[in-house]
Amino acid sequence: MATSFGAICNDFYINATLALKLDLPTERETLLHLFDRVRKSQPEMNRLKRYEGELALESVRPTQESEYRWLALRRNNIRTGHVNPRSMEKGYELHRLVLELSPYHLSISPLDVSFVELLFGFDLECKANHDEVVYDALFSQSPVAQLLRYPGAQVSDVQPLFGMVLGEGDIHCSFDVKTRLKSKRSRSRRFQDEPISILLTMRKYGPVQSTEELLPIFNTLASKAEQLAADQLIPHLLTPIARQITSSNT
């Protein structure tokens, strides 16, 4: 994996969302035209699949940690994702393409834009108790630790979410940690094959003056996300959790 972000986690992914206020068109010909146009630029995306409330165009993901792309249309949003891109620029290609094509193929008006969102995801494999790992990494030496210290109690849910607004309220940013619970039917305390996800989400709310603004907005979010990931998320969130995972496995 070529990206520096991908080198520090098991899976790195870039997701984007264009959220709308009105419902998308559902005509067969309209949707197929968009999917065909995307497939021409991304030939590996040749699998059309229907999920509950969602129509998706995907590439094949043959093995774990391999590169994978997807485009999903829901009732009032368009979502795209690129897992384990070879470079950051390659990771942005699909998102930029869909933001450029969708207003014309799906008749999206500037007034219709609710928000543009960009997400960086870092998945860390962890076989230990996820919540205990996150607690020990981030809170065990802080005043917050006293909150959960009770005789006979065990930490059961530690999924911190931190948010801030950049500039003059123009861009909303959040840092989020997602843990997975073990199966209620199993007594095993192992979390094999389930990652801890560390997420950086950037969001710019609409409306916009023109749909031609969507690409510049995305580029601004990408630039700020790269800086925040490198300067804030990795040293202050990802690295402590990764170290605790290593410690828990020894």
Helix count from the secondary structure assignment:
4
Please summarize the sheet with the most strands. 9 strands, antiparallel
Strand percentage lies at: 25-35%
Give the tally of β-strands.
9
Estimated radius of gyration: 20 Å
What spatial form do the alpha-carbon principal axes imply? globular
Average pLDDT metric: 91
Overall number of domains: 1
Output the helix-strand order: EHEEEEHEHEEEH
Class from secondary-structure proportions: alpha+beta
Lateral strand order in the biggest sheet: 2-3-4-5-1-6-9-8-7
Q: Measure the end-to-end span.
A: 26 Å
Low-confidence blocks of residues: 183-191
What's the helical proportion of residues?
25-40%
Describe what you observe in this structure.
By secondary structure, the chain is an alpha+beta fold. It has one domain (6-249). Helix content is 31%, strand content 30%. It contains four helices and nine strands; from the N terminus they run E-H-E-E-E-E-H-E-H-E-E-E-H. It has helices spanning 28-41, 88-105, 130-138, 214-249; strands spanning 11-20, 45-51, 54-59, 68-73, 77-83, 113-125, 161-166, 171-178, 195-205. Strands 2-3-4-5-1-6-9-8-7 form a nine-stranded antiparallel beta sheet. A hairpin with an 8-residue loop joins strand 3 (54-59) and strand 4 (68-73). Helix 1 (28-41) packs antiparallel against helix 2 (88-105), helix 2 (88-105) crosses helix 4 (214-249) and helix 3 (130-138) crosses helix 4. The longest helix is centred in the last third of the chain and has 36 residues, at 214-249. The two termini are 26 Å apart.
